[in-house]
Amino acid sequence: MTKLTNQLRPLSLLCELTYRCNLQCPYCYNPLDLKAYRDELTTGQWGTVLQAAAELGVVQAHFSGGEPTLRADLVPLVEAATAVGLYTNLITQGTFLDDDLLDRLLDGGLNHVQISIQAPQAPLADRIAGAIVHDKKADALRRVLTREVALTLNCVLHRLNHDSIEDVIEYAQRLGVRRLELANVQFYGWAYRNRTALMPTLEQVRHGEEVVAAARERLRGSMEIVYVLPDYFGDFPKPCMNGWGRQFITVTPNGYALPCPAAAGITTLAFENVRDRTLVDIWKDSAAFVRYRGTDWMPEPCRSCERRELDWGGCRCQAYLITGDPGVTDPACSLSPDHAAIASLREGTSGAEPVYRRA
Amino acid sequence: MKPTACPRFGKGVKLRHDGNGSIMLLIPEGALVLNASAAAALELVDGTRPLAEIIAAVAAQFDVTAERAGEDLFELFERLEQRGLIAPFDGARGDKAD
Lengths: 359, 98
Hints:
The complex is a heterodimer of chains A (about 350) and B (about 100). With about 350 residues, chain A is α/β, with parallel strands linked by helices. Chain A is about 35% helix and about 15% strand. Chain A contains 14 helices and 10 strands. In chain A, strands 8-7-6-5-4-3-2-9-10 form a 9-stranded mixed beta sheet, covered by helices on one side. In chain B, about 40% of the residues lie in helices and about 20% in strands. Chain B is globular and about 35 Å long. The interface between A and B is medium-sized, with 25 and 27 residues.
């Protein structure tokens, strides 16, 4: 039994159906210019995308956003994905997931739901979300837990809620959640803009690691805890997307196909749109997908590094955000000549007020 | 997992037959590629067949002893159970495993 990590085949399609959202979380990775994405793909266009993805060998379709349940055609899209043999996953903040919608999604073949909370207590959660929604999410979680569908509870961790990490685990346990994802914030889009306010402290990061290790031991066999490491605190970069254009495709609300959900921020690359060319063609030979695929593009220190096929040079979007050049080693790597920039970013600011996401 | 338990898939776990003849286990937010004997065993998971019977069937199919087949398969089922991907199911008592 192995993970599919070493073949060039898209396995996963992230369908960002809309960037509209009724929450305003400052840690959102969506782009800042949300207004530029309002010309959304139609139901039929998404159907074509799903079919092309299946043809390429994709096995899972993830419906996300923004808030995907704001699309009136979410159910037909789940049905379309199921019809071409895809495993379907809904990534939602849950505020619209009532019994009726859930019934229709499950009839449509939905396999998995990921619901996010902002914190385990309503006052803090609602403050981070910029809306009174926490109790509604708890209702949605209970509703999903009683149904024949898998659930992951997700909480993005950052400076403002990191100290509640133990309470998040307890919250999940109390509800009977089987799979919990504790994801340290990744700094793209709104989160990058808010990085000084959201950057966890070193103490928070270390404490989090201890708490997760102990909880995994204690809850072995009853809860799986997925812990997404913080990006700026390790020695090596994350193997972002398991390599650029190797296994993942993201399609934005307005139809751009990206090798990574944050890639639209890289303005030096020309991404192609599924309205102009098929997803199959874009995956195979579009300049943006091919540009950083594999290892041939790598500069030193990646080129001669023994880890080059472990972390694939790290994250192109992060390299671009921090150095202005998407073609250099991810500065998160301790071997990068730009690594000093990470050390200064790691210094967050206590009490800094984040900017809330808005269109 | 006991040999008498009847494993069944957890929520959101699906076997998938790929075009090229390989079989994958699709799980929440991931996919596992199965080797031939693991695939054969998981194809028999239906919540009514005891694990011992599954192992015996795989042993017969691959022409090895049940002990030999059991070495790998017990570990596989154990690991899948830990992750909540497989639940032991005792149909007689109607237990719900998670």
